[in-house]
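Need the bound structure for nicotinamide-adenine-dinucleotide, inputs here:
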Amino acid sequence: MKKLKVAVIGAGIYGIHHVDVYKQNPFVDLVAVCDFSPDIRKKVEEKYEVKTYSTVEEMLANEEMNAVSVATPDHLHVEPAITCINQGLDVLIEKPLATTVKDCESILEAAKKNKVRVAVDFHKRWDPAAIYTFNQLNESETDYPIRGYMNMDDMIDVPTKWFKWGNASDPIDFLGVHCVDLMRWYMGCEVTEVYSVGSKKLLPSLGVDTYDSVQSIITFENGCTWVLENSWVLPSGFAKANDSRTAILTSEKYIRINNQDRGVEMVDSEKTHTPNVFFFNDFNNRVVGFGADPINSFIDSLIDGSDFVADVYDGLQAAKVTEAIHKSLETAERVKL
Ligand SMILES: NC(=O)c1ccc[n+]([C@@H]2O[C@H](COP(=O)([O-])OP(=O)(O)OC[C@H]3O[C@@H](n4cnc5c(N)ncnc54)[C@H](O)[C@@H]3O)[C@@H](O)[C@H]2O)c1
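Answer from helper R.:
Posting the output first, comments after.
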């Protein structure tokens, strides 16, 4: 069986999941991992017995490959992605595709020029609750959406302790982009207007100069309006690293999702945890769950030529909305798209 040769760029908190999934995918030969950090490179070499490199250029000069995953920090996707695209490689890019519309367009143009395929890891589309909701919304010819609510919040440890680049991102680029992508997918049309307000107080006081919380009203072409809330300051004592709820009212249905409650509680000496057991789980020496699914799906699409579930165009459209949210925050005005 011919395997696809794949590499991962950025093997930090999330990129290591790409390494895990590729290592276990029978159609993939994981040829290399690239990360600036010597500690990460050492750990990856020991655990996965795979060659590592400190720069993309060095990796590309020394290895043959068909595709790469880019899992560098939000604001640092564009450079390694375009370098690989210019080498003719297909690319899976972590969300957000990039943090500006201009950077997303550069990735799109480079992909067109080099005739390569670019997917975006909007993994929430693989969440069973989201799939159920999507199917419900598309079940009836006569049903139409009236209003929606979605929040996605992280505990304060994420921007202050998990990574060092909190200043360069915010709850919109890190979390809101997931929500915008889900809303576009649910609605099957584009956003026409956003209005946003936000607060910057707690995180700046802790040395992370970014928004604590942003609230937006988002209008879609079909007339449905959504309230979106994203925050990076949930208390550390919260039962899970993040919290997310959705409520959609349509002409025929009322659908509510509480992602905080995935049916499992685990109590230890510190607190009660409510793990998202559908996201990543180890079973029979394999990583399973909706975190792993889009990475395997990227490989499936490269092999059978099927469309990506979320591609570079979805990444660009989501970035247009997140950029409009930022503009609305700056100007305190409604922004039309
Ligand atoms: N942490 C999460 O829960 C999570 C969840 C979903 C998606 N993501 C996305 O995954 C991406 C990575 O996030 P993370 O939390 O893993 O960050 P991280 O800081 O833990 O890891 C990023 C890694 O990229 C490396 N890096 C940066 N630029 C590089 C380059 N040019 N070449 C090689 N290595 C480079 C860094 O050394 C670092 O190890 C982000 O876009 C984020 O939005 C993260």
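Comments: The first helix runs from residue 15 to 24. The mean pLDDT is 97.
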